[in-house]
Queue: 3 jobs
Job 1
Amino acid sequence: MSKDKQHSTLKVIIAGGGTGGHVFPAIAIATALKKKVIDARILFVGAKGRMEMQKVPEAGFHIIGLDIAGLQRRLTWKNFLLPWKVLKSIRGAKKIVRRFRPDVVIGVGGYASGPLLWAAKREQIPMLIQEQNSFPGLTNRLLGKKADKICVAYENMEKYFPKQKLYITGNPIREEVVSIEGKREEALDYFGLSGDGPVLLVTGGSLGARTLNESMAIHLDGFLEQGIRVIWQTGRLYFSEAQSIQQQLKNRQNVAVKQFINRMDYAYAAADLVVSRAGAIAVSELCVIRKPAILIPSPHVAEDHQTKNAMALVNHHAAVMIRDTDARSMLGEEVRALIFDQNKMHRLKERMAALSYRNAAGVIAGVVLSIVKTNYKVINEQ
């Protein structure tokens, strides 16, 4: 907050993206800053061709794209271009920082985060890292030594970052997704589900998840026979096959098959139990809405982040985890053992609530402002 009558326009760069797990928290932080500071100018920097180049403008913010990509784990010619792309992106990041002259830079992870944070440190600009996962990626672990503050979502992160820089804030989540109070009946109608059995939501994210879909193909008929109603989000690639499976079922009216769910608030409101991958934001949303969950971590993410995210809940007895390789054989048994056990469901809800952070974006925005050295004018300043 400003100490005198001379105010400057607060200028912020938010760098990173690549997946919704980086992009949506970044947008949430930007929105929180706009609510706190009058006329704040916020510039996003992302990677060309990645989802942030679409989602950020849709949210009303300006973005510049760097020509940067990550190392491919399989042998491919694209890896030979990586050093050139890194050097090019660093030059581009330096130009952006010098032209925009930000008061603070926020890194949310993803390809573009590294070059921007490196350039910011070279220019002695205050820098904050927001780490979504319980096990940080290599870039954030390296840059954490240079950052002024580091906002994290999990305990015990001093293993990876300097303890004096850490703030446990939780992950920023989209408020419209977790606003589910009083929506259950409306949600059941939205998905066309009647009857009175418990509702199972299975979601592999916007792209779907092969293991979850193949597991559902095996166990779906059994769920329906036991009176479990199902919302099954398949993703694009499996949608047609899931529809064919549905048409062959005797109780097909008790399952809603969706390629993509536009109203996740309705999906969460309808669900009694959720089967999901263990992306950082999905886990944070589940904790806030207090929905018992069976987490099946993806084995295809860098450094096995999702297993570590899931274990952070499992170690607090706040969720059940099934390994990806065991899901096809174990999902049916685990769902039935949990969804009909109200005492166990209640215990999971209580423990998830203890791990939830509702206003993470606002708290992170406050930490950001604490390292800004210039004067700025806050909203509702007296």
Job 2
Amino acid sequence: MKKAFLQLHIAVFLAGFTGILGKLITLNEGLLVWYRLLITSVTMWVLFHFTGKLRKVSRIDILKLTGVGFLSAMHWVTFYGSIKEANVSVALVCFSSVGFFTALFEPLILRKKINWTELLLGLLVIAGIYIIFQFDPKYRTGILLGISCAVLLAISMIWFKIFVGKLGSEPTLTYQLSGALVSLTLVMPIYLYQFPTNYIIPDFNDWMWLLGLSWVCSVLAFQLTGLAIKKLSAFTVNLTFNLEPVYGIILAFVVFKENELLSKWFFVGFAIIAVSLVIHIIMLLKTEKKLIQHERD
């Protein structure tokens, strides 16, 4: 149990590095995501093929996963766009609003009851982001991209969970990322026409950061999460992943000294978001306690 808990925390900590590496890579956000998808999807095809974790998937499911993959690709493009337009901290603060959009879209997609508590907590996060948006105008483009990233992630994750239940995690992730690569490749000429750049081929430093982003923060983090989930409850997993934006912002403060560049309004907004996360954690703890008590009874 302790080993699984450590594996999960390492996975979340590694995920927190994605923003740091995104800022270090000098490619524009579209090309950054394209190279990340190329490295990650090829690695997963090879890894899961030789470990026997892939299975046959129907053509209709491949098409659907390609659509989900396109949403995921756009999520990453807007996430790294937010980092480049603002900074890592602002992008991750906006990323934390994914819970609100999940609570908003999940009942519509899955036709289930709205969880009003999660929705209200999500609105608290939106209020924190609004304060930063209102009083830090230099970050507005980055914030809009960050919120778009959260919307796209919420929708793609809802569909991802549906396919995981049907196909399993390894096939779903492999076909989803492959679909993301194919769909992003098709729209890349239009993207580069709208956002032209002379820097298309990564230099040595960018290749090193891209390999770290793909192999360590994606493939390794996924493998560690998969191992941990087998031994930990859904409660523990959800609780731990709430810490991802916090880890990422702390890393941004340490690596880039972003805390020295942010105004007091960022910290006011972040404090409101932190309160929402704490309340959510307390709720999860109470729910887990009731479940344990029910099992004992």
Job 3
Amino acid sequence: MKAIIPVAGAGTRLKPHTHTVPKALIHVADKPILGHILDELEQLGIKQIVFIIGYLGEMIQEYVDKTYRFKTYYVQQEELLGLGHAIYLTRKYIKNEPILIIYGDTIFKADLRTVLKGHYSRIGVKSVQDPHRFGIVEMNNGFIARMIEKPDKPSTDLAIVGINYIKNSQLLFKCLEELIKKKIRTKGEYQLTDAFQKMINQGEKMKTFLVDGWYDCGKLETLLQTNRFLLDGLKKRTVIPGSIVLPPVSIASTATIENSVIGPYVSIADHTIVSNAIIKDTIINKNAVVRNILLTESLIGDNALVNGKLHKLNVGDSSEVDFS
């Protein structure tokens, strides 16, 4: 079995940060978003992963190859024609074997061990308040009867959340090929859910499984929510002489903290300097310098310099802000 992780998107909702780093490598809690996903796959015993890369894809490849020991394959998606198109590009690396498809910007908590032992393809779902934003599933006698991508009037609140276990990968690629050859698009893109529906129409039985924890990292607000959730699970206590640390926090061992109040819900990455600051509910990325400031609900990019007085900030990589 192989895992497939699409990470080709440009992350437009997280600009300016994604001008210089792909969305999957934005820091949350103590590592990049993609790192949390790959840690889960390591624990599952998955050995081979196909990545679909695009925008700043070389940074994805460098991070994965330096940090993990998976056997990796990389496919370039030159045009962003939809998730179905992205998955179709991986076909030469997938033999007649099951596949696990996980979206590269979603951190999750689910019992995947049980899912992978099952006899049927399984689609991860979660009840949501705004199902029109997602693909949804309709059930009949315990099996999926219908899958609809971003319906205007959803008939259920069971949203497809981006973790899919497909037993019959060859049928999936056959259905994707039909969509692409016949140019069948939904909302302008080749949709993976449309291919899943074609599989069901051809007799493939699919079930769902509930994803207890599903954390979208696609925009600042949800990224900070995910950071809070992950930090709540950390048991490590941090003590910094001359500063006050209010857990939960994640502070890299290479960070320098001076005369500051840090926390709760703060993540500080490697080689960052924080001085004379009060910071809570904030993510500070690598090599940033933050001085003389009160920060809350903020995201500070790599190599940024922030000096002054402000309550809320969203500063991209290699920026410089001085309010002194």
